[in-house]
Amino acid sequence: MFLNHDNVDWRATDDHDFWTQGQVVEEFGDILPALDRAFTLQPSFEAGQRLYIAETVGETGPATAVRAAQAVLALAAWT
Fold it and tell me: What is the pLDDT along the chain (79 residues), one digit of tens a residue?
């Protein structure tokens, strides 16, 4: 779920293309109703979310977290 509190025309820009991967609410008062719908709507977003992550992030298995942690530790040791 994404909150568009600034009323950005998010469909008109690539900066917000990930917002197609969930509900977009425009008002704070719409957050709780959107949360109520989240479990019901999630299956309709799941395939697109998986594809989006595969195309933008790449591998997301357990080894990815280990490599990320190792990179952070290496950077911390370097600085």
Answer: 999 999 999 899 888 888 999 999 999 999 999 999 999 999 999 999 989 888 887 777 788 888 888 989 998 887 6
* CA–CA separation, 46 and 27 (whole Å): 24
Token representation of residue 63: 């080894």
**Backbone phi, then psi, for 61, in 5-degree steps?**
-70, 180
Enumerate the β-bridge partners of residue 2.
24
Which CA distances in Å does 20 have to 23, 27, 30? 8, 17, 17
CA dihedral 5, 11, 16, 18 (to 10 degrees): 110
Q: Is 3 exposed, middle or buried (0-12, 13-18, 19+ CB in 10 A)?
A: middle
Which tokens belong to 15?
């900066």
